[in-house]
Design brief:
Blueprint (H helix, E strand, L loop, with lengths): L1 E7 L2 H17 L5 E3 L6 E9 L2 H12 L6 E3 L1 E7 L4 E6 L3 H14 L14 E7 L5 H9 L9 E3 L1 E8 L6 E9 L3
Antiparallel strand pairs: 1-3, 1-9, 2-7, 4-8, 5-6, 6-7, 9-10
């Protein structure tokens, strides 16, 4: 099984993103981008990758023991990872979000997972480029005249997801929810 840990979006945030995605979708070459489904939107805390069942048991047990307060998620502007071919909404790195991300990676370390070497760059993926051409993202970025103003939200939980590849893109199933405490 392929696993990752992330924060789900508040319903109001997802509703606001749907409006933005519909506006952007109308401007984009339809064959050039694969748009992420609302149900797949999240903020990754740690990508774990392939895990065995005993690792899953370890991860779930350690995350159940993790204690962290609710945290406010601040959303920023639209951006692109040109090399990866991703259109995203920036999530501002705050001390509280960093603390949760570090607590999650520390919790999974005894289960055989190591944190990534690169800096933490939280975001919400809205679309991925199909194929190798970068033209669609470049063209779409040029058409964004004004950055949307997105309200933040308070996260009260994080989730352990299982990712299943499909021809239409990966499907994310929630395996377990972990509450954050006020």
């Amino acid at each position: 099984m392929r696993l990752f840990i992330g924060i789900p979006l508040a319903a109001g945030t997802a509703d606001a993103l749907i409006v933005i995605v519909h506006q952007l979708h109308a401007k984009a070459a339809p064959q050039g981008l694969r748009w992420s489904a609302r149900e797949s939107w999240h903020i990754t805390l740690q990508f774990l990758g392939s895990a065995k069942s005993e690792q899953y048991d370890c991860i779930a047990a350690r995350l159940r023991d993790l204690r962290s307060p609710h945290l406010f998620i601040e959303l920023g502007s639209l951006g692109t990872f040109d090399r990866a071919g991703v259109l995203y909404v920036e999530v501002r790195v705050t001390p509280e979000l960093t603390a949760l991300q570090q607590a999650v990676t520390a919790a999974t370390a005894p289960c055989g997972f190591t944190p990534e070497d690169r800096p933490y760059h939280p975001h919400i993926t809205l679309a991925r480029r199909k194929g190798k051409g970068a033209r669609e993202l470049h063209d779409l970025r040029l058409q964004i005249q004004q950055q949307p103003k997105l309200a933040g939200f308070t996260a009260d939980s994080f989730l352990l997801y299982e990712s299943t590849p499909t021809p239409e893109g990966s499907r994310y199933d929630v395996r377990e929810r972990f509450p954050l405490h006020p």
